[in-house]
């Protein structure tokens, strides 16, 4: 199979309190529509969109999770395997802003550190704002997250959010691939040295303790027929 045939697929989870605009954001991005009606998400939903990033085809699978705690058990299961995350709060809902750190923790508890952005939605309703700009910026800084102000209604900054995540993910994927290649290279050199000295646990997929360094040999990349992902690093699906 040709390298060009391989497509990067990224599972993105969109999380935050109820009614902040998660479903609307996904609908806007994947279908180009906005509806004023509020229909509470029950459990989890998902839509996808293909984009090009640095000449690479990237398929974004956007998982819409329910904002209500009553669905926590279901939604948490769907965080597994997520490779990027959007944390959303609303300009008109202070509680949704204050809940952001705990949403971040919930996602991290399932998938660890993945590319994440913080989004303040509904900036078309700035007249009704319940927080200062500096507060949101301070939170983004504290959590070390890229921060976007967006309006799903006015289609402001929605594309930018997902483009940034895709770029960030690809960047990590490349870095990860290079590191793995270097690791395999270094390891094979070291195995030689180690074996000469004797007493190694040799063989692939086992941890090798060599001069205090633990070296893991893993398959280079997990690839399915048409998709490519970070494999074991972030994904647990
Ligand atoms: N003014 C304004 N309203 C918005 C915007 N985005 C979403 N809404 C409205 O906010 C309400 C809630 O949006 P949803 O997308 O259903 O919210 P959600 O976060 O998915 O809610 P849950 O499913 O309960 O978790 C709907 O009435 C939307 O029309 C926006 O940018 N501006």
UniProtKB/TrEMBL annotation:
Compartment(s) where it occurs, according to its Swiss-Prot or TrEMBL record: Cell membrane; Cytoplasmic vesicle membrane; Cytoplasmic vesicle, Autophagosome; Cytoplasmic vesicle, Phagosome membrane
Cofactor(s) this protein requires: Mg(2+)
Protein EC: 3.6.5.2
A cellular-component GO term for this protein: autophagosome
Pfam families attached to this UniProt entry: Ras
GO biological process: anatomical structure morphogenesis; protein transport; system development
An example Gene Ontology molecular-function term: metal ion binding
Catalytic activity from the UniProt record: GTP + H2O = GDP + phosphate + H(+)
SUPFAM superfamilies cross-referenced by the UniProt entry: P-loop containing nucleoside triphosphate hydrolases
Stored InterPro entries: P-loop_NTPase, Rab, Rab23, Small_GTP-bd, Small_GTPase
Record membrane topology: Lipid-anchor
Gene3D superfamilies: P-loop containing nucleotide triphosphate hydrolases
Superkingdom to which the source organism belongs: Eukaryota
Keywords annotated in UniProt: Cell membrane, Cytoplasm, Cytoplasmic vesicle, Developmental protein, Endosome, GTP-binding, Hydrolase, Lipoprotein, Magnesium, Membrane, Metal-binding, Methylation, Nucleotide-binding, Phosphoprotein, Prenylation, Protein transport, Transport
Subunit organization: Interacts with SUFU.
Sequence similarity: Belongs to the small GTPase superfamily. Rab family.
Protein's UniProt name: Ras-related protein Rab-23
Organism name: Scyliorhinus torazame (Cloudy catshark)
């Amino acid at each position: 199979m040709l390298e060009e045939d391989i497509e990067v697929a990224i599972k993105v989870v969109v999380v935050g309190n109820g009614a902040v605009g998660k479903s609307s954001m996904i609908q806007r991005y994947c279908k180009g529509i906005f509806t004023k009606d509020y229909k509470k998400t029950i459990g989890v939903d998902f839509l996808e969109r293909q984009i090009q990033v640095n000449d690479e085809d990237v398929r974004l699978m956007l998982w819409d999770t329910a904002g209500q705690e009553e669905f926590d058990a279901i939604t948490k299961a769907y965080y597994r395997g997520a490779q990027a995350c959007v944390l959303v709060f609303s300009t008109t809902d202070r509680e949704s802003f204050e809940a952001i750190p705990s949403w971040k923790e919930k996602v991290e508890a399932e998938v660890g550190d993945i590319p994440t952005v913080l989004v303040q939605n509904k900036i078309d309703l700035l007249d009704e704002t319940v927080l200062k700009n500096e507060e949101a910026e301070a939170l983004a800084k504290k959590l070390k997250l890229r921060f976007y102000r967006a309006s799903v209604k006015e289609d402001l900054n929605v594309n930018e959010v997902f483009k940034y995540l895709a770029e960030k993910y690809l960047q990590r994927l490349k870095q990860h691939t290079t590191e793995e290649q270097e690791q395999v290279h270094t390891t094979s050199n070291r195995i030689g040295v180690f074996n000469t000295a004797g007493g190694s646990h040799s063989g692939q997929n086992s941890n090798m303790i060599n001069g205090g360094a633990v070296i893991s040999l893993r398959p280079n990349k997990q690839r399915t027929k048409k998709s490519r992902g970070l494999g074991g690093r972030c994904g647990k699906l």
